[in-house]
Amino acid sequence: MLHGSVISVRQYIRKGGGMAGLQGLLQEIRLLEERVAEEVTRDVEEFGYSLRNGRAVFDKEIIARHRDLASRISRYLAESSLLAAATAPLVYSLLFPLMLLDGCVWIYQLLCFPVYRVPRVRRSDYFVLDRHQLKYLNPIERTHCLFCSYATGLIAYVREIAARTEQYWCPIKHAQRLKDVHSRYYMFLPYGNAEGYVADLEKLRREFSDLQ
């Protein structure tokens, strides 16, 4: 359904629809995304936990069962691939450049977005660290989950900052089709639309009403 809506947006753009109609189609996409999120929340009922202050809470009986299912570290290491274990230090060595990227992007957004009058990206929307609390994971698995949650959350966070930056500096679609696009891309001007760029650039630089 979401893919169909994206296709509708592209067809609409080809027909020359205005920004007002495009905003309506983007709103439909957001509604579909919310429906997908609602489907995901059905896991809450199926796997026996409740959300309290944004944190998953299991019943004591379920926690006990989870602990019984947790793999012992000795068994986990014995069953692990030797090659996978050998590459683990390389994986975790990425933590340092990721943290450097995190700090640089945070400073950039803090200093530049107020100048551009672009809404800042909230870290809490992209960083969710909760899987390490699952009791059916052993300490090694919990560490893996923490690292992966941080890395993927950071990439999503940086991508949104870059998307809003691109909307300010260069809101133009590519001539070639992209496999995946960021959240602001559908608002951009068609490739080759010189008149639209001259007329609408300043407007597009301020078009963040959907984030409010």
How many discrete structural domains? 2
| Anisotropy-based shape | elongated
Q: Give the neighbour order of strands across the main sheet.
A: 1-2
Spatial extent as radius of gyration: 22 Å
Oligomer: single chain
Order of helices and strands: HHHEEHHHHHH
> Which range best describes the helical content: under 10%, 10-25%, 25-40%, 40-55%, 55-70% or over 70%?
55-70%
The major beta sheet can be summarized as: 2 strands, antiparallel
Determine the strand fraction and express it as a percent band.
under 5%
Describe the structure.
The chain has two domains: about 1-40; about 80-210, no CATH class. The relative contact order is 0.10. Mean pLDDT is about 85; it is low at about 1-15. It is elongated, with a radius of gyration of 22 Å. Strand 1 and strand 2 form a beta hairpin. Helix 1 (about 1-15) packs antiparallel against helix 2 (about 20-40) and helix 7 runs parallel beside helix 8 (about 140-170). It has about 210 residues and is mainly α. It has a two-stranded antiparallel sheet. About 65% of the residues lie in helices and about 5% in strands. The protein has nine helices and two strands; from the N terminus they run H-H-H-E-E-H-H-H-H-H-H.
Short description:
The chain is mainly α and 212 residues long.
Helices and strands in order:
Layout: H1 2-14, H2 19-40, H3 42-46, E1 49-52, E2 55-58, H4 60-69, H5 73-79, H6 82-93, H7 95-116, H8 139-169, H9 194-205
Antiparallel strand pairs: 1-2
Helix pairs in contact: 1-2, 7-8
